[in-house]
C-alpha cells in the first residue's frame, strides 16, 4: 500500500469555521501574539493566556470537520495515510484520521509548565469540561499551561514528521503559506520520485526545487480534485 503524507495548515480548517491564526480576522486579532503565544507572555500573565485558550477551546469543541478532512480520512481505504498538521485543532481526528502528527501542539490538552512533554502531566480536556481555571496545577506542582508550542520554542514532533515524509510515495500540502518553519522545510524531505501536490487558492512558492502540481482551490474542493487524480 502506497504511503501518502499530508501537511496541513490553517487553510485546512477555515471551512469548518475555525479561523486562521494570522490574517485580519485571525484568532490573534484581539491580542498581540507575544501576549498569548510566547513563553514570555505566559510568564508575564498566565491568567490571560489560560483564559484566552479557554475561549478558543470552546470554539474548537463546537467545530466540525469539513469535507476536506473527511476525504483525507477516506483515503485510508487505499493508502497508508499520515497527516502532519500545523493546526492545533482536532478536526482531523474528528473526521476519523488515525495517524496525525501535531507539530504545534493540541488545543484540547493542557500540560505541566515545567515539563510540557511529560505524558504523566498531560491532561485531555473534553467538550463537557473544556476550561482550566487560572491557577490550576499539574501533578508536578507547576501551573497547567496549554499544550501548545509557543513561538520561539522547539518543535519536538518535527523529527517524526520528517521521517514520515522521507518514506512518502505522495506528498500533499493543504492550506499553508509555507512561511512557518520548521514545517515549511518538510517538503525538502520528500523523495525525488515522490509527486508533490499543493492545494491552496492563493499563489504559494514552496521553498524547494521539487516539481509540484498546484491545485488552486480551497481544501474541500481541492481534495475532491486530488481524489480524482489519485484514483
Give a quick precis of the structure.
By secondary structure, the chain is an alpha/beta fold.
Written account of the structure:
With 231 residues, this protein is an alpha/beta fold. It has helices at 33-36, 39-44, 46-62, 67-74, 91-95, 158-166, 219-230; strands at residues 3-8, 80-85, 100-102, 105-112, 123-124, 144-148, 170-174, 196-199, 212-215. The strands form two sheets. A six-stranded parallel beta sheet has the order 3-2-1-7-8-9, with helices on both faces. The chain has a three-stranded antiparallel beta sheet with strand order 5-4-6, covered by helices on one side.
H/E series: EHHHHEHEEEEHEEEH
Q: Over the alpha carbons, how many angstroms does the gyration radius reach?
A: 18 Å
- Strand fraction band? 15-25%
- Provide the low-confidence segments as ranges: 22-26
> What structural class do the secondary elements suggest?
alpha/beta
Shape designation: globular
**Total E-strand runs:** 9
Main beta-sheet strand count, sense and barrel state: 6 strands, parallel
Major beta sheet, strand line-up: 3-2-1-7-8-9
Q: Kindly state the mean pLDDT as a whole number?
A: 90
Level of helix content?
Answer: 25-40%
Q: State the end-to-end distance.
A: 14 Å
User: Given the structure, what is the number of helices?
Assistant: 7
Amino acid at each position: 500500500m502506497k504511503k501518502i503524507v499530508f501537511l496541513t495548515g490553517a487553510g485546512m480548517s477555515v471551512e469548518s469555521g475555525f479561523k486562521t491564526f494570522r490574517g485580519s480576522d485571525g484568532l490573534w486579532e484581539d491580542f498581540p501574539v507575544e501576549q498569548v503565544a510566547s513563553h514570555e507572555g505566559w510568564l508575564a500573565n498566565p491568567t490571560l493566556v489560560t483564559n484566552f485558550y479557554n475561549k478558543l477551546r470552546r470554539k474548537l469543541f463546537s467545530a466540525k470537520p469539513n469535507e476536506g478532512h473527511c476525504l483525507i480520512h477516506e483515503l485510508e481505504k487505499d493508502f497508508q495515510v499520515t497527516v502532519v498538521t500545523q493546526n492545533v485543532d482536532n478536526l482531523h481526528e474528528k473526521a476519523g484520521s488515525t495517524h496525525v502528527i501535531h507539530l504545534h501542539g493540541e488545543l484540547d490538552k493542557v500540560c505541566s509548565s515545567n515539563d510540557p512533554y511529560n505524558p504523566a502531566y498531560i491532561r485531555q480536556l473534553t467538550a463537557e469540561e473544556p476550561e482550566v481555571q487560572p491557577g490550576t496545577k499539574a501533578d508536578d506542582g507547576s501551573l497547567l499551561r496549554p499544550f501548545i508550542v509557543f513561538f520561539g520554542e522547539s518543535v519536538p514532533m518535527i523529527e517524526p514528521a520528517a521521517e514520515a515524509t522521507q518514506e512518502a510515495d505522495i506528498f500533499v500540502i493543504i492550506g499553508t503559506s509555507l512561511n512557518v518553519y520548521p514545517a515549511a522545510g518538510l517538503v525538502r524531505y520528500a523523495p525525488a520520485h515522490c509527486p508533490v501536490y499543493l492545494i491552496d487558492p492563493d499563489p504559494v512558492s514552496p521553498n524547494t526545487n521539487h516539481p509540484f502540481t498546484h491545485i488552486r482551490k480551497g481544501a474541500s474542493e481541492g481534495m475532491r480534485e486530488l481524489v480524482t487524480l489519485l484514483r
